[in-house]
């Protein structure tokens, strides 16, 4: 048996799959593919219901400007995430820490604004029971919000590890993999914002 | 291949991508508030802009442009399956029933 196969080091990023892609990264991509199918199911159902039945104008019910601002914040957090990865790859850990903190802040603001929006809408009587639009709106944005929440928890975890010196210029696969997830959440929101809020 | 080697590609100009995303978002909102004769025109414009934004995020932020082709094939296959799913749903609504 090959010597390398006998000495397994879970922290060695050189331990590759046959595709030449790190296991963690490949796992995240496969997970994201399943997520594509999940959100496609939701978006597809929404489109079919939206154009197959009488539908209110979302702009009359939802606050487009508030959500546009929130979209801007999520895009910014995606930029700060990718900048954090760039800086750690360049070996500047201080800047990587700063950008990870900014990403955490962006994700937290996005969630806070979404909670504010929900409270406001529920106060005005727009709840999941009121109409088909209400049901689909809360289902789609709720599932996305849950993904953002999971992302924020993971970003907090990775930021903590970064501050503890667990990530270096050579070993930062955790941040790279988390970045993939975070950008995917951003990508899904870009589509949800367009389809649910603007059409 | 180490992580360093994996990162060995020209670093994209992330700020340029950010400005593009911001510009496209503003264009989307403008398109949404401008009155349109038909809902189809409104929807087509917004969906087209959203798809451009999503592609920018996938290619540059998720580094799909610089990844191995395996990743692209993996990701594209789910997108194709997704599009088939949505198309069948829409077709069921649009096409006349016997």
How would you characterize this protein structure?
The complex is a heterodimer of chains A (199) and B (98). Helices cover 77% and strands 0% of the residues of chain A. With 98 residues, chain B is an all-alpha fold. Chain B has two domains: 67 residues; 31 residues. Chain B is 74% helix and 0% strand. Chain B is built from four helices and no strands. In chain B, helix 2 runs antiparallel to helix 3. Chain B is flat.
The secondary-structure class of chain B comes to mainly alpha
Detail the poorly predicted runs of chain A: 1-6
CATH homologous superfamily grouping of chain A: Cytochrome c oxidase, subunit III, four-helix bundle
Low-confidence stretches of chain B: 1-7
**What's the N-to-C terminus distance of chain A?**
60 Å
Counting structural domains of chain B, the number is: 2
Task: Please state the average pLDDT score of chain A.
Answer: 90
| Estimated share of beta-strand residues of chain B | under 5%
* CATH topology-level fold name of chain A: Four Helix Bundle (Hemerythrin (Met), subunit A)
Oligomer status:
heterodimer
Total domain units of chain A: 1
Largest interface: A-B, 56 and 52 residues
Cα radius of gyration of chain A in angstroms: 20 Å
Distance between the termini of chain B: 58 Å
Number of helices of chain B: 4
Features:
heterodimer, A: about 200 residues, mainly alpha, Four Helix Bundle (Hemerythrin (Met), subunit A), 7 helices, disordered N terminus, B: about 100 residues, 2 domains, flat
